[in-house]
Design brief:
By secondary structure, the chain is α/β, with parallel strands linked by helices. The protein has four helices and four strands. The protein has one domain: Rossmann fold (3-Layer(aba) Sandwich), CATH 3.40.50.360. It starts with a helix and ends with a helix.
């Protein structure tokens, strides 16, 4: 995991995606998020009285969420979980893409949905633009 942590800390932009189960990210995604607790260890020494945790990542960077779920899905639980995790990692949420699957058993269904593909391209362009204008240097 340490290599993954190093890459995560060094990334310029974070695009985080997950299928949704029971109104939240998958168990694997949640486990990964939970293991990132090391990025803000508890400040037992009271080094900074304004915070109870030490920030190991201080550089802000853009990010976005991508969720896939059923057509009647509720996405707020997943959005809140990932938004809190983004704050922990100093990632500024720049957008969210949701794909409502019409058939949970059909592989590749999103490839036929031009609207979602267009939204994905727009989100990618938005993130690229943010990297140049707001996060360069």
């Amino acid at each position: 995991m340490s290599t993954i942590f190093d890459d995560l800390a060094a990334c310029d932009c974070l695009l985080f995606g997950s299928p949704l189960y029971f109104d939240n990210v998958s168990a694997q995604a949640k486990l990964f998020m939970d293991r990132c607790n090391c990025f803000r260890p508890v400040d037992f020494a009271g080094t900074n009285p304004e915070h109870h945790f030490i920030k190991r990542i201080t550089r802000k960077r853009p990010g976005a969420m991508v969720f896939v779920g059923g057509e009647g899905g509720w996405y707020e639980g997943a959005r809140r979980s990932v938004a809190g995790w983004f704050k922990w990692l100093e990632v500024v949420n720049e957008g969210m893409l949701i794909f409502h699957s019409q058939d949970d058993n059909r592989k590749g269904e999103v490839a036929e949905n031009e609207q979602v593909l267009t939204e994905a391209r727009e989100l990618g362009r938005h993130l690229a633009g943010k990297l140049v204008t707001d996060y360069a240097g």
